[in-house]
Amino acid sequence: MGEMAMGGAMGGAMRSGSAPSSFAMWIPMWVAMMAAMMLPSLAPTLWRYRLAFARSDGAGAASLTALVGTGYFAVWIALGVVAYPLSIALAVLARSIPMAAGTLVIAGGALQLSSWKAHHLDCCRSEPSGCSTVRANATTAWQRGVRLGIECCYCCVGLSAAALVIGDMGLRMTALMTAAITIERLAPAGARVARVIGVVVVCAGVYMMARAAGLG
Predict the structure, then answer these.
(1) What is the pLDDT of residues 169-205, one digit of tens each?
(2) How many structural domains compose the chain?
(3) Which domain holds residue 206?
């Protein structure tokens, strides 16, 4: 219920053309949304890490897997620090220059169609590659979590930017983002799914531009 309230609060603030009024409000909202969006696709990866660690250090596999998850979310929290001023700038942009906002959404969708996106998506989908050949210890687990978090941030940058520009970070957008991220990570044809999602985002950007021009 707390997550629903925070998602609704952020959605309302973004729709009104302003970011949450303080950094102290932003970070809990950000963490709640990122946990909701990333856990469905992260859970199978963490399970594979647990199995890999168990082969080399069965007794400590659970704690090492927890360290992977901690490193992963530490990266997303750090990104939230950067996203706070960015969200303010994008809210102002969307309110004052709607045509530019539509252009940025199109750019986010186009990134979904790129080979750059395909590369980082493949990195996310293939984790934990080579884990069984690496000595299982706390440092290694933390580093792998951070690396996974960075790859995930790269992979999601187009969708995340488009969502911030659209300015609706409530429950509906969170659900759509969760579905998109989970399907492209877990579906057999993940790269194809990512491209389909990119086309949908581009169309949303075109619609935004048409409305800004008074055509919609």
Answers:
(1) 667 888 888 999 999 999 998 899 999 999 999 999 9
(2) 1
(3) 2-212
